[in-house]
Amino acid sequence: MKTFVVGMAAMLGALGIARAQGKSVVEGIAEYRKMLEDGNPADLFEAKGESLWKTPRGPKNATLEQCDLGKGQGVVKGAFVELPRYFADTKKVQDLETRLVTCMETLQGFNGADIAKTPFGRGEQANVTALATWIAAESRGMRFSLPQGRVEEKKSYEIGKRVFFYRAGPYDFSCATCHGQDGKRIRLQDLPMLTKNPGDGIGFAAWPAYRVSNGEMWSMQLRLNDCFRQQRLPYPNFGSEATIALGTYMGVNAKGAESIAPSIRR
Amino acid sequence: MKKPIRIVIAAGAVVAIIAGCATQQAPSSQDFDREAQAVMKASFRDQGIAKVDRLDQDLGQAACSSNKPPSDAVAERIMVEARASVKWPAGGQYFGDWREGEKLAQDGRGMTWTDSSAATSANGGSCYNCHQISKAEISFGTIGPSLYNYGKNRGVTDLGAPAAQGVIEYTWMKIYNGKTSNACSNMPRFGHAGVLDQKQMTDLMALLLDPKSPVNQ
Question: Structurally, how many domains does chain B consist of?
Fold first, then answer.
């Protein structure tokens, strides 16, 4: 709450300065974001995530240091910018969060289904978010390059594209309603165009992110969950195929974009 | 002359073999379409007022679910069905209070799984999310066109004048079911989908068309 108040004060201050100096509102908001970058609370989640990776935990009292995130056991650097990808052991395309749950299950003995059912920000689900934050940070500045060599990976992209354009619900919205055109906004919020590479650090390349408006760390699964909420659709299950396929679609489209995750957002 | 013919036959055979393999191995676009439907059905659950039946698509939703527009024939059918869906306001009373309309235009709430009720009284119009409307509100979205001076730009100076009737009916249809004039319009069908009731829509009509509304100053 305190962070929220400080954030709002900073934003109003930046907007006030922008108006006084005759700058556009958009420039004022860019300035506000710049001010926020000086201290991103995501740092705290990063530190927590690194500690969780290296600390023996769970029924098997083991660390996650042998977890294979796609580049071999224990390789963290560069893993984030190649996910979602296919994993031979689970025979599935997995995103970072579902892959972490697999490792927590196989290495540490946690119950993966229980974690998937846990609300965001609680219990082991909060730990998954912290782990994802640290793992993303280890690839900061690297460029997205998702593998698409396997039939399953290509299929995930094709399914993701169709999920992206799927219109339904009382408002007839799809992801494309807001993210299918260049240079659009909801209120003052710029909307990334996600059917192509939206640029460095934009869209898929910005999450996980610390959200100033509610003082929470948001993973990509939670980001997508809230998109579907605002789309007025029902609740997407954590790690469901639709969410992973959307990740593949956005990640492949973002090929070459620089990751700035974990970033800070409104 | 005989040699080239043999080559052509051989090349034809190779093409046939490759085509044969391709149909066995690579899934078609239609296969992905079917699979995506199954994935959608398997990936969601009920939460509060947002039940999984919201994934069921009507003709227009299904036909506008790709990066390609529907065929002219399908688009026409969507628009004809949309026009048939429109219920006109009781007693020809199109106009409520533009002040109430402004409140509704500002209000982006409604119909999410964190909203406790799907009743029209719990919903806003979310208009500023996508449209510029009155000049005073600088926090507006740009997915839809600017509606500033909506009535004025269309020459509406007297809501009772016969000349204004066409614009009035068009605007009502647009709010009630925007697919009447654009098969794949991004705009929610506020009347048709039961998001707003008749009274709320008349308030929005006043906001857009009343010469006294700040929209037309």
Answer: 2
For residue A18, give both structure tokens: 């922008």
For residues B105 and B173, state if they share a domain: yes
Q: What is the pLDDT of residues A30-61, one digit of tens each?
A: 777 677 667 889 999 999 999 999 999 999 99
**Contacts B40 to A, Cβ<8 Å:** 163, 166, 242
Between B18 and A83, the higher pLDDT residue: A83
What's the CA angle centered on A115, arms A110 and A120, to 5 degrees?
145
Question: Are residues B99 and B171 located together in one domain of the fold?
Answer: yes
Q: Give the pLDDT of residue A213.
A: 87
Asked if the structure places residue B91 within a domain, the reply is: yes
**Three-class SS of residue A107?**
coil
Mean pLDDT of all residues in B161-187 = 97
In a domain, B193, yes or no: yes
Residue B75 belongs to a domain: no
A84-143 pLDDT, tens per residue? 999 999 999 999 999 999 999 999 999 999 999 999 999 999 999 999 999 999 999 999
**CA–CA separation, A53 and A66 (whole Å):** 10
Separation between Cα atoms, residue B128 and residue B147, nearest integer Å: 10
d(CA A184, CA A205): 19
* pTM for this entry: 0.89
Closest approach of A25 to chain B, Cα-based (Å): 9
Task: Spell out which residues of chain A touch residue B109, defining contact as CB-CB under 8 Å.
Answer: none
Supply the ipTM of this predicted assembly: 0.89
- Tell me which residue range forms the domain holding B36: 1-43
Active-site residue, from A67, A175, A178, A227: A227
Residue B34: both structure tokens together? 């079917």
Query: Could you identify the residue written with the tokens 């690839």?
Result: A139
Q: How far apart (Å, rounded) are the C-alpha atoms in residues A137 and A263?
A: 9
Q: Is A5 on the interface with B (CB under 8 A)?
A: no
Give the pLDDT score at A22: 52
Q: Report the SS3 class of residue B168.
A: helix
* 8 Å CB contact of B141 and A187: yes
Q: Are A164 and A224 in contact (CB under 8 A)?
A: no
Same domain, B103 and B11: no
pLDDT surpassing 80 at residue B18: no
Nearest CA in chain A to B67: A165
Answer whether residue B55 is part of any domain. Answer: no
Q: A241 and B42 in contact by Cβ < 8 A?
A: yes
Q: Is A227 in the active site?
A: yes
